[in-house]
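User: Hi! Is it possible to get a structure for several chains at once, not just one? Here's what I have:
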Amino acid sequence: MLQIHVSEDCQHYAQCVLEAPGQFRLGEDGLLQYAGVAADEALVDVEAAADVCPMRAISIVAGWPS
Ligand code: SF4
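Assistant: Yes, the chains can be modeled jointly so their relative placement is included. Here is the combined structure:
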């Protein structure tokens, strides 16, 4: 499993939503929503989301116990 964390630096620009819509979405309030854990198979998408985040707000821990 992957553990995903988004820091308080997030400005809700939503680039991560475009890169990994299965992991991130914007709520009706305009704030980012994400589950915080994902299957290992999502690593490529989550890494792509982290790479495009202008705030470098996304961190990933691989090898999280399932
Ligand atoms: S791309 Fe970064 S700043 Fe934008 S919503 Fe996602 S985590 Fe937040």
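Residues 6, 10-16, 32, 53, 55, 57-58 surround iron/sulfur cluster (CB under 6 Å). The first strand starts at residue 2 and ends at 6.

User: Great, thank you!
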